[in-house]
Prior knowledge:
single chain; Restriction Endonuclease; 3 domains; five-stranded mixed sheet; 18 helices; globular
Amino acid sequence: xxxxVFISYSYNDKQFADWLTHKLSAEKINIWYDATDIKxxxxxxxxxxxxxxxxxxxxxxxSKNSIQSSWVKYEFxxxxxxxxxxxGIKIILVKIDDVSIPSDLAGYPYIDLSRNKEAGxxxxxxxxxxxxxxxxxxxxxxxxxxxxxxxxxxxxxxxxGFNISRTPKTRDGGFDFIATIKNNFxxxxxxxxxTKFYNNQKVSIDILRQLYGxxxxxxxxxxxxxxxxxxxxxxxxxxxxxxxxxxVWEEQKLLSKLYSNTDILEKYFSVTPLKEPKQIKLIDKxxxxxxxLVQELDKCxxxxxxxxxxxxxxxxxxxxxxxxxxxxxxxxxxxxxxGDIRDAIFPNRSKDENWKFIRxxxxxxxxxxxxxxxxxxxxxxxxxxxxxISDYLKKTIGRFGIVCSKKLPNHSGxxxxxxxxxxxxxxxxxxxxxxxxxxxxxxxxxxxxxxVIIDLIDDFNLNF
Length: 464
């Protein structure tokens, strides 16, 4: 079967999508496009899944319209994009206005057509035509230790044309390799290379700051960071300012390199790439369970009528995400504004890195969650919820609490949180519905969902 290019877009960008389809079709590229491929009476979700499964490339049109589009969110934010990439389908982002790339898509390269469509289309055609047809599974990084990973990267870089030497063992230079590579003018450039091998951790902003300091001290041309993980949101923001000096290969980029070097793949993972594409299954039981939780969260009625339902679905999501490593939640009831309000208190005796950090830094023997199902036109997440959860954070509980709410805090809530941190060293985080969805998506991707909470702590500390 001839593989297609799947195009995802917001209906408000249909004029651009029509233009793009016409351009690609003129180059004899087979397009899956809903304007022609979904007929009256078809199941839209089923047809979209079929279209993705039959594709070797997925083009996501990124615009101010598309990041608000419920259909684009279904197709990609739902983890279909991740599962597609894991199975060897190339993801190509096409940016058509001055929108910022959403954080959950920031790990993928993009082509900017917002300024010069004709020039951008040439790059897009090259990307599509360079796609291989073979699909591949996600690699089992737990087969390696840090030294294996460093050796793997060394062999891979040599094959990529780098002339590398290891940092002497007697000297801790803060990086693993020094390399030279020819630039476009056939002049040798000095490159510092650092590897970061993680199982359940993202690359923090501190790592990038250290590398940038080394870049300046060593007077290098570039710094190269290679990891089997991904960047935190704060790291991405930092990198956006220094992207010309720091090059990062996250897991997706590293996988593409490894599957192009089959001898390295076989040596370290005992994996032989398939000679024929296998049938791709994009939707599985775990994916369906995740989608069900997201749908329950989205459909929950706002305000007092949906208060109990909101608490129930939040507790269900948090149990799925964090039990274990946290203990089963203890539910505490109290009266507020004429209604029964419940808080969920999760025992924190975990040895996992993130929860251990929170326990040691904030004396958090328990993780306290409070739920606020405020409607769009109702009460605000102001200083009152912050004071309520602060009062609950006694010495026997800890100095760390989380307010779950669809709405973000207003100025009063943010300022009161600062006051409480200054006066009582208590940290209160605001966890939105989008954060809950992001954590579910991370768990589905076999990534650590509590990294989202660590990112929020980093954001608070950096902006305090």
